[in-house]
Amino acid sequence: MVRYLDEYPWIAGVLLICGGIFVGMFGIRYFTKVLWGVVFLMALMLLLIVCAVFNLMNTTLWFFISLFVSIAGASALAWLATREFALNIAFFLLGGAGGFFVGIMIYSAILTIVGSGPAWAMIAVAAVFAIIGAVLALKNAKMIVIFSTALIGSYWFMKGLSYFIGGYPNEAEIYSALANDLSLEGYLTNMFWMYLAILIGSFCFCTWW
Fold it and tell me: Which domain holds residue 132?
């Protein structure tokens, strides 16, 4: 599946754009359904990757067995995530995810300006903002749900556009370049500011919506 998406990146682009629009604009109105869908898709992808790593999808029979088990497992996890007793955990994780994206974007903006920085700082900044977002989610869940769904949806939308427009830096590649003391030239260009403007504009629109 991962190899297929590498060969046809436009599929990932379309999925991210559609998912971003839905999560960003309707995340707060249909929070339970959105949460179910996000957890299901992430769990399904993770379970399928695990099956592929252990070579459980080499034959047609085992492919369908792995697919069935993965769908069942992902559905169970999504159901658990939307139960009332688990919602506080969901708010906590959602706030953390929103803060993580904010930290990554802030550090990327700093790198675009200064041109270099330590790899550990990228993780540190993202972790600090993730903790802040998670703590705020426990204090004001509704506000964080609005902001986090708007931010995550806007990020997915922006990321999806990058599959068609190009020029957006891959966070994993930036971290690898920093860790190996490589130049960031070619990773961070002025296109970053265009994408940042798209993210901020989309976030403001989704929050207002």
Answer: 2-208
